[in-house]
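User:
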Amino acid sequence: MAVTELLGLPRTRGRLPLVAAQGVDALGTGLFLPFAVVYFHAAKDLPLTAVGGALSAAALLALPAGPLAGPLVDRLGARRVVVVANLLRVLTFAGYVFAGSLWQLVVLAALTFWGEGLFWPASGALVAQVADEGQRARWYAMDRALRNVGIGVGGLAGGVLVAWGGTGGYTGIVLLNAATFLVAAALVASWRGPAAAPAPPPRETAARGGYRAVLADRAFRRVLVTVFVFALCDLALTVLLSAYVIDTLRLPSWQPGILFALNTVLVVAGQTVVASRLEGHRKPRVLQVAAFVWALSFLLFAVVPLAVPVPAIVVLTVATAVFTAAELLQAPTSSALTVALAPPHLRGRYFGLEELLWGAARVVAPVTFTALLAGGAQLPWLVLAGCCAVAFAVLKGLKPAHEAAEAKEPADA
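Assistant: Predicted structure:
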């Protein structure tokens, strides 16, 4: 068995610029992500609470980006929109260096989030175009693994820059991030292939297109419910875990770092392998298993205060490993399911609605999780487990529509 097959990697011959762009993009994100809030506080002397409020306001202003990205992807092609989204983020991150007031932060951060809102639907549609038949889940898995590697390496490099350069180090991080977006845009723009742009749909098909046609898809409406639930599940680790471990359980501050590192290592090592082993399995069934596994992980997190005499870190470690197993099952499968349901000329809109729900989850999760945690240590985890039960039930009814969509997929792709 070839090494690439053993690792579950997709065939990338002729598409290496796209793979390189994914890696470069992830590296830049990793540089800036751990210091996003601290940068504006330490380098721009803005109050920490004001920075948090400004970023939340910017995220709200950018919520329409995903739905607006859909028609652009469907009309202009995914590759062009990916390039535009990266160039927009080049400008905004370069602008951060010169921004000094709160209103400038809100404007630039909103434009940055707009760039992200354009990027994710376009990136998902681009993968659907370039991946070989039957290997889309592998491509989505490889993208996720690359992003985890980039975030890990970028975070370490960013920490070195800050430790070495102080305020100048923060500025260096922002400029390097802008440079990585520029390189990623150039790599994607340089790629040419037979699937670089979708074939225009027939006039009568286009007339029936748009978001009305997308929302008329009953199967996809069910999928959108699971997209929102799984987004909340995914955000639980980054938004909730540190506060739960440090503030609620009163455990040492180094423990969340260990748990995040475990999650990253497992994703990098296992994501493509798991995605390749799931080929041939019905996607709704895989997502049902993911919902069940995620619910199990949340129940494990909930029982940590009751786990005496077992050390809390042991239960937290097991819960994090189970949580990561659910991620490995869900992340590439959800994207591949959306592609299976979407007609090629509407893929951008399908991914655009997914991005809208992800954006809504990013807005809702922090305030909801912290309020639930204030109401009781177990409460947020039990609510999340209940949300997983809803997703499980919704997916159970998806089988007939999904199988019909998959029967058409080879002719559409």
